[in-house]
Design goal:
Strand order of the largest sheet: 2-1-3-4-5
Helix content: 25-40%
Shape: globular
Order of helices and strands: EHHEHEHEEH
Radius of gyration: 14 Å
Largest sheet: 5 strands, parallel
Amino acid sequence: MNSKKTILIINGPNMNLLGIRQPEIYGSTDYVDLENLIAAEAEQLGVSVSLFQSNHEGDLVDAIQQAYFDKVDGIVINPGAYTHTSIALLDAVKAVGIPTVEVHISDPDTREEFRHVSYIRDACVGSIRGHGVQGYLEALHLLAEQ
């Protein structure tokens, strides 16, 4: 019997303010709408998803580590500002060895210079940037097909 793939969606700081925070950059979709969009796409793909959001770096590291013990098949992560600062997230993704896709609603490479650096990208099997909330769905497809 084939079991359903499980994918963990991790969102970092300020993602809970989606739809409120700088809609000219991040769009008007709010966080609940994003969750519903992801859940609907996961159902169509036949994968199981769980979502986690925190504004705290250590909580994000804990979620990545727990994914290993929960035998999660893939991780989609939008680390938010921790993209540019967190070696801890990079180390956690490397440690667990779970295929991970980095997602950003905007394209950090077209924004301020400090946003051009992504520590976590080196540990990811893919990076989707600047595709809005659709980037999460692209990441789900990428992991579902692995």
